[in-house]
Amino acid sequence: MRPHPRIRKTVKWAGAAATLLLAVVWLASGWYGAYWGSSDGQSSVVVQSGRVLLSRGGYFHMGEGIQAVGPTSGRFWWEPKYVTGLRGSSMLTMPLWAPAVGILFITAIAWRLDTLARRRVRAHLCPKCRYDRAGLAMGVACPECGSQPA
Q: N or C terminus of the chain: which is more exposed, having fewer CB within 10 Å?
């Protein structure tokens, strides 16, 4: 079953926006960072130096709420890292480029599928079986597979 054109276009444009946003955050995190800490001090999130740092169990705690971290070292982190500490605390460091590449891959597939669908419509091909519909009336079902044109 093929995805609906609206779903494909939503994935295409939302993926492009998410990839652009992650790229901007990744570049900006080279100069400035941001921190969020829970009120109980058990979990925190830091975006800094091209990475996102997730900690649980009080492994990395700088206070409560959202804060600016300030200028960073400028060194970008490229590798993921998982560290465990005392009493079940843990920290996961993940580079921001990793989810951006995944989203970019899915977005590229959606763009390609949408481009192919538009080409088929322009070339008068059936979107399901690619039968040449040139010379057929607009509302007639495809003689090859029986699908109705959109």
A: N
